[in-house]
Specification:
Layout: H1 2-12, E1 32-35, H2 41-49, E2 54-58, H3 70-79, E3 82-86, H4 90-93, H5 107-118, H6 135-152, E4 160-164, H7 181-194, H8 198-205, H9 220-225, H10 231-258, E5 264-269, E6 288-291, H11 297-304, E7 309-315, H12 320-333, E8 335-341, H13 354-373, E9 375-376, E10 378-384, H14 387-401, H15 410-415, H16 418-433, E11 437-441, H17 443-447, E12 456-459, H18 467-478, E13 482-485, H19 514-517, E14 523-525, E15 529-535, E16 541-547, E17 556-569, E18 575-585, E19 592-597
Parallel strand pairs: 1-8, 2-3, 4-5, 5-6, 6-7, 7-8, 10-11, 10-12, 12-13
Antiparallel strand pairs: 9-15, 14-17, 15-16, 16-19, 17-18, 17-19
C-alpha cells in the first residue's frame, strides 16, 4: 500500500502536460571553459593562467556513508577555479550506459538484448532497472541530490550534472522499455490526459479494452507485424519520452529545493529521437544541457528553450584546428561554454589544445559574453519538429528493410539520420546558408497558433500530423502563407494511424525551393558559409559569417544589407565604414563577426 500511495503522489506531481522552463540560466552571462579530468593544484593553476575557468568534481554517490568533501575540492579552490558536480545520479538516469570496471559501457543493454533474443516472450528484457517511474528510486535520487547540493552550495558550483550520456536504454538506441508495473501504471494515468475516454482510445488503437487498468502497450515486434493501427506502440514511445523528461525534471526540482540559485544539468545529450531525446519535452526539464551536435539539434533546442544554458565539448583527439572550429560554431549556435575532454592529461601545454585555448581566450575577452547577451534574429520562417513523424517513418523503414531491429544499437541510431531527421537537418542548414535563422514549431505550438507572423512554413517529411496541426496548416495556406515540404504530409495522424484521406490538398513546394522562397533581411554571396544574425540589447545587430568545417578555396564573402549601415569588426573593433555592401575575409576556423548599426 505504501508503494502504491507513493506512486500516486509521484504521478500527481507531474499532472501538468508541459513543464515550466527554469529561469535560473539567465544568470549565466560569461563564457565558461571547463576541464573535465581531475588534476593536481599545480596543473589547475597552469590551466587558470591559460584561460580555463572551471574543473569537475565527481559526486559522492555513496548514499549510506558520504565521504568528506574538503580534500576533493581543495586543489580547485587553491587554484581559484570553480567546478561542476558530475554524475550525481548516473545509476538512475544512465543505467544502461555508464562506466563499470572491466565491462563495456553498455553491458547491461547488451544483456537485455541477449535475453530478448533468447526468449522474446520473457518480460524481463522489457523492464527497465530501475524504472524511471519507480517512486522509491525517485525518492532515493531526491534525497541524494539534496545532500550533494547542500554540501557544495557554499562554494557556488557552475551546475550539478544529474547524469552524463543518460537515456531510457543505451543512449539513443530504441528499446521497448519500460514494461515495469510502475511504468505501466504511469502510462495508463498519462493516457487519461491524451484521450477523452476509453472509447476514444479503443477507436484510435483499434482495440477493445474494457477498463483503463487493462491497457497494455504494443511492442515493436507487434507494431512491425501490425496490419492496422500502431497507436498503442506510438503512444507508449511518447510515454517513455515523457517519463524520461519527468524523471529529469524531478532531479532538477530536487536541486532547486536544496538551493534555489543552483542549476541542474544533463550532459552527452543525443540526436533527436530514441532514448528520451524528444526535444518537445526535455529542454523544459533542466537548466543546463551539454549536447553532442547532430541533425541540427543544438539550433533546435536554442529555438525551443532560449533560456537554457547550452554547452558543447571537444576532445584532444579531434585535432586543434577542427576543435577550434567546433568551439566557434557552437557559440554561434548559442552555447555558453565548452567542456574540454583531456583524456591524455595534456592541458594546458599540449599542442593539440593551442587553437582551442586561443579561441576560448578570445571568447572570454568579451565577444563570448556579447554573443550570449544577443538574441538570434529569427525571420518569419518556421520549421516543424515532429517526433511523431520520426516514429512513424522509423517503423516504416524497419518494415521495408526487414531483419532484426534489435541489432540497431545507439551508434547506428546516432549516425544514420533517416528520412525525417535528414530532411529537418537539410532544411535548417539550407536556411542558415541563406542567412535565415528560422523559428521552430512543435506539434503543440503549431496547433496553438504558432504560425502568427510566419510567412513560410517548412514541413520536413511531416508524415504524421494531428487533426489540429492539419487544420492550422490549412488555415495558414488559406491566409496566403507558403508551405515548403517534401514527402506526403499527414498521411498518418499523430498516433500513427493511417488516414483514409489526405488532410492537405497536395504536396507543396519541395524543399529544393526553400532558398528562393525564404525571406531574408540580408544576403551573403559565398558558398559554404553560414550567416547568422543577432539582435543586441542596445538595438544594434551582429552578423556572423562562418565557413563550413573543411571548406577549402574560400577566402572571403560579400555581405549585402537592405540599406547602408555603419559596420565594424566585432572581434577587433575596427571600423569598416558605412555601406550596404562589404567584402569580408573568412578565416578557416574562426567566424567573421561584424556589428551593424543604423
Amino acid at each position: 500500500m505504501k508503494r502504491r500511495t507513493l506512486l500516486a503522489a509521484s504521478l500527481a506531481s507531474f499532472a501538468a502536460p508541459a513543464f515550466a522552463a527554469p529561469a535560473a540560466g539567465k544568470e549565466w552571462r560569461d563564457y565558461e571553459v571547463i576541464a573535465w579530468q581531475s588534476r593536481d593544484e599545480a596543473a589547475y593553476a597552469a590551466m587558470r593562467r591559460a584561460g580555463i575557468t572551471a574543473g569537475v568534481v565527481i559526486a559522492d554517490r555513496n548514499d549510506a556513508a558520504p565521504a568528506p568533501l574538503g580534500s576533493r575540492i581543495a586543489p580547485l579552490r587553491e587554484a581559484g577555479l570553480r567546478w561542476l558536480v558530475e554524475n550525481i545520479a548516473t545509476d538512475f538516469y544512465a543505467s544502461y550506459h555508464r562506466f563499470t570496471q572491466g565491462r563495456a559501457v553498455n553491458w547491461r543493454f547488451a544483456e537485455a538484448r541477449k535475453l530478448y533474443r533468447a526468449n522474446p516472450a520473457d518480460p524481463a528484457a522489457l523492464i527497465r532497472e530501475p524504472s524511471l517511474s519507480d517512486p522509491d528510486w525517485l525518492a532515493r535520487v531526491r534525497v541524494r541530490l539534496g545532500r550533494v547540493v547542500r554540501a557544495h552550495a557554499p562554494y557556488r558550483p557552475l551546475y550539478y550534472a544529474l547524469a552524463d550520456e543518460a537515456g531510457i536504454a543505451d543512449l539513443s538506441a530504441n528499446w521497448d522499455f519500460d514494461f515495469s508495473p510502475a511504468s505501466l501504471a504511469g502510462f495508463r494515468e498519462w493516457l487519461h490526459g491524451v484521450y477523452p475516454s476509453l472509447d476514444a482510445l479503443n477507436a484510435e488503437w483499434e482495440s477493445s479494452f474494457t477498463a483503463w487498468q487493462d491497457i497494455a502497450p504494443m511492442t515493436t515486434a507487434d507494431a512491425l507485424r501490425a496490419k492496422g493501427s500502431v497507436a498503442g506502440w506510438m503512444d507508449f514511445k511518447a510515454w517513455m519520452d515523457e517519463a524520461f523528461a519527468r524523471a529529469i525534471r524531478a532531479g532538477t526540482d530536487a536541486v532547486h529545493a536544496a538551493d534555489p540559485r543552483a542549476l541542474a544539468g544533463i550532459e552527452g545529450s543525443q540526436i533527436p529521437g530514441w532514448g528520451g531525446y524528444d526535444y518537445t519535452r526535455l529542454p523544459q526539464a533542466v537548466d543546463v544541457m551539454e549536447i553532442y551536435e547532430a541533425a541540427a539539434n543544438v539550433d533546435l533546442v536554442r529555438g525551443l528553450a532560449p533560456d537554457l544554458v547550452l554547452l558543447t565539448s571537444v576532445g584532444s583527439d579531434a585535432g586543434g584546428a577542427r576543435s577550434a572550429h567546433a568551439v566557434w560554431r557552437a557559440v554561434l549556435q548559442g552555447t555558453r561554454g565548452v567542456i574540454l575532454w583531456d583524456d591524455k592529461r595534456s592541458l594546458p601545454d599540449g599542442t593539440e589544445w593551442h587553437a582551442v585555448l586561443d579561441a576560448c581566450r578570445e571568447l572570454r575577452a568579451g565577444i563570448g559574453a556579447r554573443l550570449i547577451a544577443a538574441t538570434p534574429h529569427r525571420e518569419p520562417v518556421a520549421v516543424l519538429y515532429s517526433p511523431a513523424s520520426f516514429r512513424v517513418q522509423w517503423l516504416l523503414d524497419r518494415r521495408a528493410e526487414g531483419g532484426d531491429w534489435t541489432r540497431r544499437g545507439a551508434r547506428v541510431e546516432f549516425t544514420e539520420e533517416g528520412p525525417v531527421r535528414e530532411a529537418f537537418h537539410r532544411a535548417v542548414s539550407t536556411l542558415l546558408h541563406r542567412g535565415v535563422t528560422p523559428r521552430f514549431l512543435t506539434p503543440h505550438t503549431l496547433a496553438a497558433g504558432g504560425l502568427d507572423g510566419v510567412r513560410v512554413l517548412v514541413l520536413p517529411q511531416a508524415v504524421a500530423l494531428s487533426d489540429a496541426e492539419a487544420a492550422a496548416i490549412a488555415a495558414f495556406i488559406a491566409r496566403g502563407g507558403a508551405v515548403v515540404a517534401d514527402g506526403t504530409q499527414g498521411e498518418f495522424d499523430s498516433h500513427g494511424k493511417r488516414r483514409s484521406h489526405r488532410v492537405l490538398a497536395a504536396d507543396r513546394d519541395p524543399l529544393g525551393r526553400l532558398a528562393e522562397l525564404a525571406p531574408a533581411s540580408l544576403r551573403v554571396e559565398g558558398a559554404a558559409v553560414e550567416a547568422r544574425v543577432y539582435d543586441e540589447p542596445d538595438g544594434g545587430r551582429l552578423v556572423a559569417l562562418h565557413r563550413d568545417a573543411g571548406a577549402s578555396g574560400l577566402a572571403e564573402a560579400t555581405l549585402l544589407l537592405p540599406a547602408p549601415a555603419s559596420i565594424s569588426d566585432a572581434r577587433t573593433g575596427a571600423a569598416l565604414g558605412r555601406t550596404e555592401r562589404v567584402r569580408l575575409p573568412l578565416e578557416p576556423d574562426a567566424p567573421t563577426i561584424v556589428a551593424v548599426a543604423d
